[in-house]
Amino acid sequence: MELVFHENGLTIKTLSTHDEVEAGLKLRHEVFSCELKWVPVSPDGMERDAYDGFSSHIGVFDHHQEIMGYARLITAPLPFMVDREFACLMPKGRTASKTPDVAEITRLCIRKEARSAESYINVSRHLYKGIYHWSLNNAVRHMIMVVDYRYFRLLKLNGFPVEAMGDFKTMPDGVRAGAITLDWREFEEYAGRKKPDFLDWMSKLPVPYPSRGLSHGLYLQR
Known about the structure:
9-stranded mixed sheet, about 220 residues, globular, alpha+beta, Aminopeptidase
């Protein structure tokens, strides 16, 4: 079911059309192939892998309908990157939980032009708001992702009580990366105490809300 809402000059939505999905793949290519050089450059300017066929995709678009932020979401029990490509970041003998309320966030990225301080905060917060409401709609409470240490600290500073699953390790490209978890119920409890205004903003969608049939409300109310 499609998630779409408009807020602060941005459109946040699940990517459902061919053009929207291609926009996400092109942004991934710009970031992960051209900038970070984590994956090979593709002749068609789109970054793809074996996980795309069974994943959900969320994008943040500006008022020109240009994609500014993107995240891919994989739900259990489907394969997770953290158990394969990033298995070295997991504690020895441990794999990611594959209960139905778990999903992995992968390929999260922000367009280079949107990385000034104000724009970055605006785009990234709306991207996480989209992920939060996608999670509510899909009965997902626990998120797993691989991030560098600086981004891990940034998430904590912005009110997300993320936890490291193991040690942060320096990868071949020099990035100090680790596997982390986010519990949306714990986020609500923490933000309710420390940042109630932020929780109120995260949990409410603009009115009128064009999509139908989506779940609303907090995990704490379930």
